[in-house]
Amino acid sequence: MGAPHLFSSLSCELRIIQAKNVESKSKGSFFVRYYLSAGNNKTIQLNTREISSKSDLSWNESFSLDCHGSQDSMDNLKQQNVVFELRWRNIVPVLGKIGGSQLLGRTEIPWKQVSESPNMEIEKWVTMVSTKGHVLPKLQVGMRIQVPATVEMERRTRGKVNKWDDQCGCKDGHCYSSCGDYEIFALAAVSEAF
Q1: Cα 143 to chain center, whole Å?
Q2: What is the largest CA-CA distance in the chain?
Q3: pLDDT over 50 at 34, yes or no
Q4: DSSP element (H, E) containing 40
Q5: What is the C-alpha separation between 8 and 29, in angstroms, rounded?
Q6: Distance (Å, whole) CA 77 – CA 145
Q7: Closest by CA position to 54, among listed 99, 22, 84, 32
Q8: Strands (E), the chain
Q9: Is there a smaller number of Cβ atoms within 10 Å at the N or the C end of the chain?
Q10: Is the confidence at residue 93, as pLDDT, over 70?
């Protein structure tokens, strides 16, 4: 028999707030695609909703999940980066189909930066590496890590941490059902990885 495994959990939250310095595009939509590590060299891809290129490029969307696993897997998660991509999709059909999306800018934020920040929370503007043109798009994001005692204390004092707490998440191998399909897939994949 080996040494007992120590298990740990974290609550991780990502917020995609808004973008600026984006070259205007006609007849299309913008969205942010982001990638999370799911362990075992797997990643999860999530997209924000698409918004018109004529809008103010404000999403203000949150995604949170509870991560459960061994202490080693939690430490590994903290060493990973979240990759953010600003993308544009032409909504004018070509040959009767709407095509794929075009990458406009990309950036990464390490979870370690969040875990080492005051209150394990950051909100900041990040300059993206532009793939086209000379304008460098900027993306405002928020990231937060909480340990279970902090989450429970905050639930008692505020009612609930955020809109995802009672609607979307995984615990003890079960995912709550009012998440979108892609969110359930992402949460299930993360839970299986740990």
Answers
A1: 8
A2: 64
A3: yes
A4: none
A5: 40
A6: 11
A7: 22
A8: 7-20, 28-37, 43-47, 51-52, 58-70, 81-90, 101-110, 121-127, 129-130, 138-146, 170-171, 174-175
A9: N
A10: no
- Between 51 and 148, residue with greater pLDDT: 51
Q: Which pLDDT does position 7 carry in this prediction?
A: 57
- Which domains are assigned to the chain? 7-150+183-188 (2.60.40.150)
Q: Residue 105 and residue 32: Cα distance in Å, rounded?
A: 10
Q: Alpha-carbon distance 167 to 170, whole Å?
A: 10
DSSP secondary structure string for all residues of 126-167 = EEPEESSSS---EEEEEEEEE-HHHHHHHHHHHS-SSTTTTT
What are 110's two structure tokens? 């390490």
Q: Are 82 and 34 in contact (CB under 8 A)?
A: yes
As a whole number of angstroms, the distance between CA 43 and CA 36 comes to 5
Label residue 147 by pLDDT band (50, 70, 90): confident
Prediction pTM value: 0.71
Tokens 């969307």 belong to which residue? 61
Report d(CA 96, CA 6) in Å as an integer: 55
Tens of pLDDT, residue by residue over 129-139, are: 987 766 799 99
